[in-house]
Amino acid sequence: MEPGAAPQPNSTVLDSKVPDGPIADLWENHKFSMNLVNPSNKRKFEVIVVGTGLAGASAAATLGELGYRVKAFTFHDSPRRAHSIAAQGGINAAKNYPNDGDSVHRLFYDTVKGGDYRSREANVHRLAEVSVNIIDQATAQGVPFARDYGGLLDNRSFGGAQVSRTFYARGQTGQQLLLGAYSALMRQVAAGTVELHNRSELLDVVLKDGRACGIVTRDLVSGEVTPHSAHAVVLATGGYGNVYFLSTNAMMCNVTAAWRAHRRGALFANPCYTQIHPTCIPASDDFQSKLTLMSESLRNDGRIWVPSGAGDARSAADIPEAERDYYLERKYPAFGNLVPRDVASRNAKTVVDAGHGVGPLNNGVFLDFAVAIERDGHDAIAARYGNLFDMYQRITGENPYTSPMRIYPASHYTMGGLWVDYHLMTNVPGLYAVGEANFSDHGANRLGASALMQGLADGYFVLPYTIGDDLAGLLGDPVVPTNDPVFTAAVAGVEDETSRWLSTNGSRSVDHFHRELGRIVWDNIGMARTETGLRSALSDIPALRDEFHNDVRVLGSADTLNQSLEKAGRVADFFDLAELMARDALEREESCGGHFREEHQTAEGEAQRDDDNFSHVAAWEWNGSDTPQTRHIEELTFDNVALSQRSYK
Amino acid sequence: MAQSTRERYRVDPVRTRRRAWPFPLNIYQSAVGRKWVMALTGIGLVGFALIHMVGNLHVYEGPARMYEYAETLRTIGGGLVPKSFVLWLMRLGLTGMFALHLHAAITLKDMSRHSSDDAGLMSGAKKYAGGRDHIAATYASRTMRWTGPIIALYLLFHLADLTWGWWLGPDFVRGDPYHNVATSLSSLPVAILYVVANVALALHIFHGAWSIFQSLGINNPRYNHLRRALAAGIAGLILIGNLSFPILAQTGLISEDNRACPVNDSDGLVCLAEEAEGH
Amino acid sequence: MSDIISVTVKVWRQDGPDSSGGFETHPQQISTDASFLEMLDLLNEQLNDRGEEPIVFESDCREGICGTCGVMINGRAHGPQKATATCQLHMREFADGDEIVIEPFRAAGFPVIRDLAVDRSPLDHIIESGGYISVGSGAAPDANLTPVPRDAAEQAFDAAACIGCGACVAACPNSAAQLFTSAKVGHMALLPQGQPERWSRTESMVEVMESYFGSCTNHGECHEACPKEISLDFIAYLNRDYVKAKVKNRALSGQR
Ligand SMILES: Cc1cc2nc3c(=O)[nH]c(=O)nc-3n(C[C@H](O)[C@H](O)[C@H](O)COP(=O)(O)OP(=O)(O)OC[C@H]3O[C@@H](n4cnc5c(N)ncnc54)[C@H](O)[C@@H]3O)c2cc1C
Ligand code: HEM
Ligand code: SF4
Ligand code: FES
Prior knowledge:
By secondary structure, chain B is mainly alpha-helical.
């Protein structure tokens, strides 16, 4: 299909299988109407869970507790290493402990609005409902959430929310929640209900008669390629933010599992919805490997500015007040430095592109605490942000107490992912996606502290119910044996791929190509997108991909730990994904949330949605390597939240 | 179920668990429990070392007082029990503590050696091919497994020297510790040996006395900062006391120049007893 | 601000768990702004270009929180900077002309997989043996039902901050895993939620720990190496709780 052309004739409208009824009771009623698997029958079912981050670990543990026979896979050496561990800020829940007017409905409303009206109402409502159970569960597991002097749980307001609903554990909320889920998982490993496969990477999803029946993994240490069969397969493999090469995601985050599922028929939804976080430490040189997030809370006290004159190379201290442009305060008098993530990010890009960037590589803006330090004193600021300042100093060697921090936006989270219905099942029967891997409940933009909530909601409280509804119908069916031709073919395919990388014998490393790809994606499918840019990406990406496949050099062998080999497959999938992102961005002729098309902005430069034509999810179907994907849609209707235009003036 | 992590990867346990002994012996089966035993016996041994040193200070009051002190040890328990009974009990207890302390030390060292790559046979400590930069470990802590055996050997020598009188020969007078000490320590090699051994003992106690708190979990944030100082104090005290004997013997302060009683195990002892009484 | 320094990297290479390894030396020019692992990335790129296999080392978050990274740098676990994981170490900690010796974390419980990568799965086995609170999903009471004194919660956090990197084992001359184990035991023992299983947890975790690792002699090297500065106090609590557990379990389960 020619990019930008009208939808193809074979494009369909997807059924999200949301039950009918008033939204507030939907989930409760539905839980009652779903089929159940009798406790003694649960052990007759085998379930594969790939990924042991918040979503995967919680799902595997809960399924194990229920009595299913679970196989959990992670390519990490331990489940505790999943990228979820790095989340800092906190987790939202509609507990309303501070008594400031929060409710399930308000969290639901805020999430739909924050997502710029591109999420599915029913899912978001369910998310808000179970959010309260997550906090109970985590606390019971021993997660040491922050507490007040009375010993009760403390909350803070996060990401511009008007209520304090964010639970946190110092700056390590993700770590503590993951350790909770991990310990629950290890309890089931000890109990024998979960069989843990670490250092095992999913390289293919296997279908028989249109139903997911298993996966193929490669043991990263021995190189052995092994088929695994099950009654259902759950992917909890995280997001694809590393398509940009530089991101705040962990080095190993990738799209491979989701992408291989996509290639087997699972629809990939809204790939162009990516979140760029405004406060990260800028790259310091060409071989920068990843970027570090500086908590969003810094914007509460820091003032963002750049020199008014382009190309001004003076150090911050030498630039007089009159020659500084506090551009967020200037453009958004009401919200100032606290505008939402997407707005802050885009504005930083604008000033840097216009030549006002600061730092040795002119690739940042200042985040200045001088006023706050003068007002509240050094000690107060140190108490609030001391650990962040230390981290900044460790990385940059600069002292943020005396000279302003330098920050720049970076890829952080991906709202797109595998399309799933109300049951979190992809369009492939028996194949589920949870956590950041699915196209998620966040619409076109995720609110701070909501990803942890979603991952745990899916894993602890949604999937374990919905999966039973589907499995109940399979009672008595054995799993497809792993010597079935569908498995042997998939294993052979994976082995072929591995040997192809090793025999390409090109001249450049995998990282080299990944970095180049990242540059194209960042420049064209980053914070602001244009038709020209997207079209050029659509020609540059395939060209670079051809070069990659012909000129990559992967040394060593397939039967040892070979990190280049692992990366080669992941980067190959990023190439395909990047191309789809560009097409998705091109087709979506509107701006919404993280997707900003410069052609579609209001007179004030804000994102301009087109609800008449694009109030839908775009879910892409794979048609083989040589044929472009087909764009299907799921209509989004908003019966409970009124659509409005965001404004932060 | 098929293969699990444990089967796929071959990190073999270095110790297989054996059948549990009945309580409370099972505590000794674990390394943590064994460290408790080391610590408890360590307390006993440190206590002994301290008392032993203090007792020996009688040497500065002359041969008669020293004689009296030795007699007192033999007659603890009064007439209720046979002479030397309690002393023998204490010796038995001490020997028991030594045996336990030693057994635990050797087995735990072995356990650590098996748990480490390329560990030193004697120290049990792991080696890095590229070298190792210690930060917290003190010289004392790293040499526990050397100072321990040095103490053990020294003890044997000490017993042979002053309790059994193996090599003082005719010079050895049972029951006249002042004479024996003065004679033995006046020899320079012996004095050096005592100095070396007691430095080892002090080092051992310097780490050991702090280690006791950790091993037994005696931990109170309010007093934790005192633990090191206490250990250093005890070690220092024992060191100074014990070193004074060989040094002063060498400088001639402990000598028999002014001795009133003759040196032998018959009328010499009687004379000493009378002198002590006379005071 | 940023300088280019020349260093000599002496790095351990080992093909597999059963092969013998040795040091390989590479000169390297690097900006002081680079992180230590970026220095290795760059070296790997150069090796790859020369047709030599890149050095295997592990890392993931590069923010000091996941615990994946970790090597011995000049004889210190995670290198010279205090409270800093390998991935957060930057080249400005080194001087022009330095020789940097890089070795894998060593312990019998951490067999080398390849080059600098070791297998730390015994740490998972320790957790598996009891490092959890048994509460099934959905079985939890309201989170505010049980207030936890703030200090207890804070102290529990100090222990829970452990990232499971294994530097404590690597730094320990005895290859003991006391700091890691005591951190998890301490975290749970300090919270009311952790009480019901406190004694059985302590007992089984210590016993699994001892089947893989050495015996602690209270050197304190682990604390110095620990990127999260886990306190030695937790080891004391562990030792105390263990013997208590032996007594308690016996009393509770009737002379088991
Ligand atoms: C720096 C940072 C800070 C953040 N802070 C917050 C915050 O404060 N609040 C918030 O709500 N959210 C935050 N987020 C977002 C949030 O952390 C993530 O969205 C969330 O943790 C994703 O969880 P997950 O379980 O879906 O996936 P992950 O945690 O990414 O787990 C993926 C799992 O899949 C496995 N896997 C992947 N591919 C394969 C494969 N092919 N084969 C086998 N296994 C595979 C991995 O081993 C891993 O176990 C933050 C994100 C970043 C980057
Ligand atoms: C027979 C000779 C001895 C040997 C072989 C020996 C060996 C050891 C060893 C190897 C340790 C363990 C070190 C550690 O865990 O850090 C130790 C600990 C200790 N030793 Fe000795 N030792 C001997 C005699 C003594 C004596 C005579 C004393 C007292 C004066 C003593 C007091 C201690 C103490 C207090 C500890 C600390 C126990 C603990 O860690 O809790 N030891 N000894
Ligand atoms: S205690 Fe410290 S050194 Fe040991 S594993 Fe935990 S974080 Fe690493
Ligand atoms: S790479 Fe995650 S802690 Fe270093």
